[in-house]
Specification:
The protein has 189 residues and is of the alpha+beta class. It is 55% helix and 17% strand. The protein folds into two domains: 68 residues; 112 residues, Heat Shock Protein 90. It has a five-stranded mixed β-sheet, covered by helices on one side.
Length: 189
């Protein structure tokens, strides 16, 4: 990767750390203070604890992103993918399976991981699925969920648009097939 890409990644990591990560941590500390208030009812405390757990997961994701931006070649793509999926689904009952092997050009790794992350988040939030399978082959990544299907582009919703834009940057193509038995997303490299 050329030095301008590396410096941009470093700049972005610094901005995430000094901005978003710090703000999320401060929000977490304030939330902890509210949870510890003796006047808070048990129902509200329980709800706030769930929110705090979700916030902690988000903070860990941001920290992982900062780490990945600064340490591009530390882990294989497969290991980064598994770590990412595990983090994304840790607070859910959704199971996952990653099979196969793939070699990804290091200059494409970040964009591809972010695209897959968005697709898994979509399945988690919108598909009502129980399982997500990811099959890695030398020229394709197939992401399949057993949810309700019905994937559509929504106005003022930019998740799938962002995925398409990321894949375009690395000359990859995406095909989505959605049925009532689930959704399949093929990323062709």
């Amino acid at each position: 990767m050329n030095s301008s890409s590396n410096s941009e990644r470093t700049r972005l990591a610094r901005e995430l750390h000094d901005g978003l990560a710090q703000e999320l941590a401060a929000f977490g500390y304030r939330l902890d203070a509210v949870i510890g208030d003796d006047n808070l009812g048990s129902n509200n405390r329980s709800t706030l604890r769930e929110l705090r757990l979700s916030l902690s997961t988000i903070i860990n994701q941001v920290r992982d992103e900062i780490y990945e931006l600064r340490n591009e070649k530390v882990k294989s793509f497969n290991q980064q993918l598994i770590d990412q999926i595990q983090t994304l689904l840790s607070s859910t009952a959704i199971t996952y399976e990653v099979t196969g092997e793939i070699f990804i050009d290091p200059t494409h790794k970040f964009e591809l991981l972010r695209a897959i992350r968005e697709l898994v988040i979509n399945a988690k939030r919108h598909a009502n699925c129980n399982k997500i399978k990811i099959l890695l082959t030398p020229s394709e990544i197939l992401i399949v969920d057993d949810g309700d299907g019905g994937v559509i582009d929504k106005e003022n919703s930019f998740g799938l648009t962002g995925v398409s834009e990321r894949l375009l940057l690395i000359d990859a193509k995406m095909k989505i097939t959605s049925t009532p038995a689930g959704t399949s997303v093929s990323i062709t490299l």
